[in-house]
Amino acid sequence: MINNLKNRIKKQLVPKSKLVVLNYHQIGETFDPNIHNENIWNSVSLFKEHLSFLKQNFKIVSLTEGLEALKNKTINETLISITFDDGDASMTKLALPILEQLKIPATFFINTAYGSEKIGYWYNLGPYFKDMDLINAAPIIRNTIDHNTYHELLKLENQCNEKYSGRDSPFYANYEAFEKCTNPLFHFGLHGHEHLRFSMLSREAQKENLLKNIEHMQRWPNYVPHFAIPFGKPHDWNADTLEISEELGVVPFLAHHGYNTFYRQPFLRFSVDTKNLQSVFNSFSPFQKSYDKLNHLNN
């Protein structure tokens, strides 16, 4: 009884006026362990369930519209924006057609190095090519805070890309569809030229990675200057990342759980891959721990 009372009070304290940005990665009819990751993959049926739940309960807007509402202080309800990271092959094959049929807007954050310069990065290369060195290195690459260790292990990724150079990437969409897209429902933002942890890069390397991304995408008709920081958790970016974003005129987004009640950069997103969407909304807290690092940087 006490827990139920606490949950009801917590729910009542969550602001009614907010922008909730949802973050997806991969969808598919069936799970393929060679190209999909169980932590970021959704079945088509689950994805459609999510969209049905959202349409029935909320107003879905483009990310640009949501930001404008925050800036102009015109939000008086919960607005939802849908985003996808990376540029997975399922975006053109499945996500775009489903969203277009339902007339739901979405923003796609794209890594421009893959499918052209490189086949992929450590996250997908290891499992696909059964590269045990890269598979074993993956947790360290993802979590280390030592710059030397990070860059030393990234050499394994480079070696794998060089070894299989010339092959078509099984992971990424044909970006020509994005480059030519003029459908007003869909927009394309930045995710870094390569999917690197910006906190592990020098200021110069961070800027170079983001500039390359901008140079590839800025002529796309539906390009928007929004930047989803790769991985987007607190140990994946630093003050330089935010300063460079401001310098280059792009709006940064995190992947750390949180909703947005006012116009404050970087903006927060909820990763909802594999999750029951209703439980995600029920878990909302009035206390935004996602802001802890931002508050520390501003002190």
From TrEMBL:
Domain NodB homology: 78-299
Keywords for this protein: Signal
Subcellular location: Secreted
Gene Ontology cellular component annotations, sorted alphabetically: extracellular region
Entry-linked Gene3D superfamilies: Glycoside hydrolase/deacetylase
One Pfam family named in its UniProt record: Polysacc_deac_1
PROSITE patterns documented for this protein: NODB
InterPro entries for the chain: Glyco_hydro/deAcase_b/a-brl, NODB_dom, Polysacch_Deacetylase
Major localization listed first in the record, in broad terms: secreted
Protein known as: NodB homology domain-containing protein
Species annotation: Gelidibacter gilvus
Taxonomic path: Bacteria, Pseudomonadati, Bacteroidota, Flavobacteriia, Flavobacteriales
